[in-house]
Design a protein that fits this description.
The chain is of the alpha+beta class. The protein has helices spanning 16-25, 55-60, 62-70, 105-120, and strands at 3-10, 33-42, 45-52, 87-92. It contains four helices and four strands; from the N terminus they run E-H-E-E-H-H-E-H.
């Protein structure tokens, strides 16, 4: 069953470019890793989201993930509250939402006509 890991980070002032570059350079060769994304969530705040073929594969890759973390650990601030420099969570997917579908050409045209009729009144 598909699993995801999510890790929250806060980067030290002036270290953002190094932190982002470390993620761009990373070429993880984890079994079952389907890909991921680094997301800027605020000023010096980031979140990494990874997708996995199974929770087992995610768990097996933890030592390798820690090795990658070690390449940019110096860039990170302690998050406080006993968390250290990362706030990781992971688990199996329970619902997948489908992507939004673009409106069909006919539906867009119908809405445009309705809007023009309302403006004429």
């Amino acid at each position: 069953m598909t699993a995801f890991n999510v890790v929250r980070f806060r980067v030290k002032p002036g270290r953002e470019e190094h932190f982002i570059a470390a993620h761009r350079k990373a070429r993880p060769a984890f079994k079952g890793f389907r890909g991921g994304a680094l997301v800027r969530t605020g000023e010096r705040a980031f979140c990494f989201i990874g997708e996995w073929a199974s929770f087992k594969r995610l768990a097996e890759a933890r030592p390798q993930m820690i090795a990658i973390l070690d390449t940019f650990r110096e860039d990170l601030e302690d998050l406080g509250q006993g968390l250290g420099v990362t706030d990781p969570v992971s688990g199996e997917m329970v619902v997948r939402l489908p992507p939004s579908r673009p409106a069909t050409r006919g539906a867009r045209a119908g809405r445009a006509k309705a809007t023009r009729r309302k403006k004429r009144r």
